[in-house]
Amino acid sequence: MKQEFDYIICGAGPAGCVIAARLSEDPAVSVLLIEAGGPDNNRLFHWPAGFAKMTKGIASWGWETVPQKHLGGRVLWYTQAKVLGGGSTINAQVYTRGNALDYDEWEHAHGCTGWGYRHLLPYFKRAEGNERFANDYHGADGPLGVCVPKSTLPICEAFIKACQQTGIPYNPDFNGRRQGGAGFYQLTQKDARRASAVTAYLKPARDRPNLTHVTQSQVLRICTEMGRATGVEVARDGQTQTFHAGSEVIVTSGAIGSPRLLMLSGIGPADHLKSVGITPVHDLKGVGENLQDHIDICVICECTGNHSYDRLKSPHRAALAGLQYMLFKSGPVVSPLFETGAFWYANSDARSPDIQFHFGQGSGIEKGIAKLDNPGVTLNSANMRPRSRGTVRLASNRHDDAPLIDPNFWADPYDRNTSLTGLKMAQEIMRQPALADFIKAERLPGSGASDTELLEYAYRMAKTDHHPVGTCKMGHDDFAVVTPELRVHGIDGLRVCDSSVMPTINSSNTNAPTIAIAEKAADMIAGKPALPATVFEYERNDLERFADT
Predict the structure, then answer these.
(1) pTM: predicted TM-score of the whole model, two decimal places
(2) Among the four 40, 150, 415, 457, which has the fewest Cβ within 10 Å?
(3) Strand pairing partners for 383?
(4) Can you tell me the distance from the alpha carbon of 206 to that of 412, in angstroms, rounded to the nearest whole number?
(5) What is the 3 state secondary structure string of 253-315?
C-alpha cells in the first residue's frame, strides 16, 4: 500500500464516505479513507429492523458519559458508531433535516456565510434519491435512497389521528414547506434495505483506482510541520504507519471523535492538553467545547392486543419474519420501528417547533428502556433546541482510553422544563380516543403521576437521542474551531467536515444535515463553485399559519 495521497480522510462515517466518493470523482487526485471500525458485513446493518440491536452496543465504541450532575449523577450509555458508514450504518434511518431557521441562524447569528438554508437546500437535494417527492424541496436522482415507510402497523395511523385530536395538524412532509405537524417519517432506505453512506456513496466508488479505503485502522494523530498538516499516524495490523497528504487532511470522525483526534494531535485548549501530558501544537480553546445533544423521555404503553412488533419476541415468529424478508423483502424486518412522529411546540413563543416525537412500534427498543411482558409501544419526546452546552475532553494521552463526554444535560433549567412539557404532551397524545382500541394502559411513567413523580421519572429515564454536534464549531469567535470553509483556524491543510462543525444543533435527527454538510464540503475542498442558492417558500411560524386555517 502506498504512503502518499492527495487527501487523507480520518473517519468513514457519513461525512467521510460522502467526501471520499465526491473527491475521487476526479481521477487526477488520490484519496485515502481510514476507518477505525470494521466493514458493514453483518446483515443486521442492512436489515432495517436491525436498528433495535444497535443502541445496545453492536459496532460502537462502548463509551458513556461522565456523571450528569443535573440528572442526579447518572452515567448514560453514549452510542457512537465504530463501523464503516458510522452513524448511517446503525441509526434508525429517520430522514429529517430540521427547520430552515436552524441554518439561517448559522449564517446570520454565527457569521457562517453561505450556510443558510437557501445555500444548503441544493445539497440536500443533490444527495437525495427520494422515491415519492420530487419538487422544490426534494431531489429524486441523488445517491441516498429515501422512501416512505413500507411496513407500518395500524396503530401508526391511529397515532397520527391522536396527534390531530390534541391539536397537532397532519403534515405529509416534514422536509417540505413546513416542519410542524404529525405524520410518517421519510426513511433512508432503498429496495427495502438500509441506505447508509456506504451503500449510497462508498460502494459505487470503491473500485476507482484513485480511492483507497481501509478499516480496523485507527488514526492516532495528525502530523503537523510549520503550522501545516502533513499526514497522519495510523495503528494498523499491529503496527504504526505514517501516511502523507499532499493537499489536505480531512477530519470526519464525528462530534466526539473529531475533537478527540485533534486534541490527541496537540490541537486544542493548551491547559487541558498539558494536564494530560500532551505537548500543545496549537492552542485552540474551542476544540471539544459547545457539545449539544437531544435528550428524550419516553412514555411506554401496554397494548390491548398484538398491535406492535413486540409480538415478534418469540423465536419462531422472529424466524418467520426473517424468512418473509429474505423471500419477499416485506414484513416486520422492513421496519426500523420508528416510522411515525411529530414536531410541535412545548413553548408557544418558540420560533419553530421545539419538540420532536418518535413513535416506536414496540417497547424496550433502545438500550436502557423498559420492555413490557405484553405488547407495547413507546413514544419518545425530545427537546429540539437545548440551551445547555457540554464538553469533550481527554482522560489521558493514551489513544485507547475513552474520552470524557459531558453533554451537561439540563444544565439550563429551560431545557428541563421544556422536556417535562414534552413528556406531558406525549402522555396527552397517548390518551386520545383514536388510540383507545389499541392502548390498554400507560405503564410508564403512569397516568396518575404527579409533577414531582414525573420529574423523578425523567431523572431515571431520560436518555440521549444519539445526536451530538458542535464540538468543532465553525465561525469567527474565540471558540470557533473552523472557518465557514471548514478550515481549522491556525493550521493549514486541515479541515473538519462533519456534525461537529454545527454552531447550533438542528431541530431534528442529524444524519441528513451531516450528509449535506459533507456534500458542500466536497465542493469546497475540490475548489468547485457552490451550487446556486435556492429560492423557496417556508412557513416561518407554524402556529400563526394553523391559527388561520
Answers:
(1) 0.97
(2) 150
(3) 355
(4) 46
(5) CHHHHHHHHHHHCCEECHHHHHHCCCCCCEECCCCCCCEECCEEEEEEEEECCCCCHHHHHCH
| Mean pLDDT, range 177-186, rounded to an integer | 97
- Amino acid identity at 52: A
**CA–CA gap between residue 83 and residue 287 (Å, rounded):** 24
The span from the CA of 472 to the CA of 484, in Å, is: 12
For the segment 487-520, what is each residue's pLDDT rounded down to a tens digit? 999 999 999 999 999 999 999 999 999 999 999 9
pLDDT at 53: 83
| pLDDT tier at 545, thresholds 50, 70, 90 | very low
pLDDT at 540: 58
Distances (CA, A) of 211 to 7, 21, 189: 10, 8, 25
Torsion of CA 158, 161, 162, 165, to 10 degrees: -160
How far is it, in rounded angstroms, from Cα 297 to Cα 381?
6
Please state, in angstroms and rounded to a whole number, the distance separating the CA atoms of residues 392 and 64: 12
65, 72 Cβ separation under 8 angstroms: no
Alpha-helical runs (H) found in 24-153: 51-54, 87-90, 100-109, 117-127
**How many angstroms separate the Cα of 369 from the Cα of each of 58, 186, 352, 365, 410?**
17, 24, 29, 7, 20
C-alpha cell at 263: 486534541
Give 271's contacts (C-beta < 8 A, 6+ positions apart).
none
Instruction: Indicate which residue of 46, 213, 466, 467 is catalytic.
Output: 467
Q: What is the pLDDT of residue 543?
A: 41
Grid coordinates belonging to 524 = 469546497
What is the CB neighbour count within 10 angstroms for residue 237? 9
What is the tens place of the pLDDT at every residue in 244-270?
A: 999 999 999 999 999 999 999 999 999
Using DSSP, state whether 121 is helix, strand or coil: helix
Backbone angles phi, psi at 285, to 5 degrees: -75, -15
Q: Please give the average per-residue pLDDT across 392-414, as a whole number.
A: 98
CA 392 to chain centroid, in Å, comes to 17
Q: How many CA atoms lie within 13 A of 441 on its CB side?
A: 8
